[in-house]
């Protein structure tokens, strides 16, 4: 299990390093060291200031980066708005009225361009923002490879097809990640980002009241946790009410996500599938990541 632990920890630190990029150029953490030495400080300072007013923002920035990387690679295509020739990914079903943090990326880009005009791509800014967000909330740091180029196109259809849904089975999750060149270790590790931030009630209502059209709750939900969620998300209530992914340490990027799965307190069906699918190879990975300290 030691080798699995080391691999999993590397996945946490690299985060999106295994996803495809739009450029074949060699990426380098020192890409801007001479041309924009202030880059890391600018990104870090802005996110820190924003987080004081909006504690959810680090989770939102990491999610924004993930949703970017799953479509055409980590190329900032998710930032593109609708035009005469572009159908924005922001209006794809997994993204619409859901993704946030665009204003923070714009704010960082403006500050970076003031210091280093027209040098740093939005794709690199978004990638750096994800790493800084991790560190500020207790998660790991990693050397971010830089030198990406921004996409000039978006792909809404691919966003609808590629991004995993909150009701996916383990088989569907593995398929979605495999399409990005990611394996089961990557799946379990990256799912750990659901240790902080919030989800809307609409994504869990079926689990609470009518799982798989049975008229009953999802049997893999902890009974006490089910009752708590039903109070927060009443059957005929607003689907836009937000619930913390992790009721224990909702503002920290830590390993509590895996602890929650072990006691049937995964908020999304797709998360609990990692531990509650009978005889799944992901169960041992959840147990291993539960033990890792970073």
TrEMBL record:
Required cofactor(s): Ca(2+); heme b
Keywords for this protein: Calcium, Disulfide bond, Glycoprotein, Heme, Hydrogen peroxide, Iron, Metal-binding, Oxidoreductase, Peroxidase, Secreted, Signal
Record-listed Ca(2+) 1 binding positions: 68, 71, 73, 75, 77, 89
Signal sequence extent: 1-25
Free-text remark on how the cofactor is bound: Binds 2 calcium ions per subunit.
Domain of life: Eukaryota
Entry-linked Pfam families: peroxidase
Function according to Swiss-Prot or TrEMBL: Removal of H(2)O(2), oxidation of toxic reductants, biosynthesis and degradation of lignin, suberization, auxin catabolism, response to environmental stresses such as wounding, pathogen attack and oxidative stress. These functions might be dependent on each isozyme/isoform in each plant tissue.
Identification of the protein by name: Peroxidase
């Amino acid at each position: 299990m030691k080798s699995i632990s080391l691999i999993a920890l590397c996945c946490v630190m690299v985060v999106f390093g295994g996803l495809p990029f739009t450029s074949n150029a060699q990426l380098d953490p020192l890409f801007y060291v001479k041309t924009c030495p202030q880059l890391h400080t600018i990104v870090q300072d802005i996110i820190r200031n924003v987080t004081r007013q909006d504690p959810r923002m680090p989770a939102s920035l990491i999610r924004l980066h993930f949703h970017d990387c799953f479509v055409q690679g980590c190329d900032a295509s998710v930032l593109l708005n609708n035009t005469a020739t572009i159908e924005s990914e922001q209006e794809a079903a997994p993204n619409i009225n859901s993704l946030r943090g665009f204003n923070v990326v714009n704010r960082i880009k403006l500050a970076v361009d003031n210091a280093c005009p027209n040098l740093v791509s939005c794709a690199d800014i978004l990638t750096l923002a994800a790493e800084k967000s991790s560190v500020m909330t207790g998660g790991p740091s990693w050397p971010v490879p830089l030198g990406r180029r921004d996409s000039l196109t978006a792909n809404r259809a691919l966003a609808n097809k590629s991004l995993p849904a909150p009701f996916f089975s383990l088989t569907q999750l593995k398929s979605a990640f495999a399409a990005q060149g990611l394996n089961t270790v990557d799946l379990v590790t990256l799912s750990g980002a659901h240790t902080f931030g919030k989800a809307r009630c609409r994504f869990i209502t079926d689990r609470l009241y009518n799982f798989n059209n049975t008229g009953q709750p999802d049997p893999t939900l902890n009974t006490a946790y089910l009752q708590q969620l039903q109070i927060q998300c009443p059957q005929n209530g607003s689907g836009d009410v937000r619930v913390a992914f992790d009721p224990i340490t909702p503002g920290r990027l830590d390993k509590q996500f895996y602890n929650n799965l072990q006691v049937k307190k995964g908020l999304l069906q797709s998360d609990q599938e990692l531990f509650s699918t009978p005889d799944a190879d992901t169960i041992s990975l959840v147990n291993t990541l539960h033990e890792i300290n970073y």
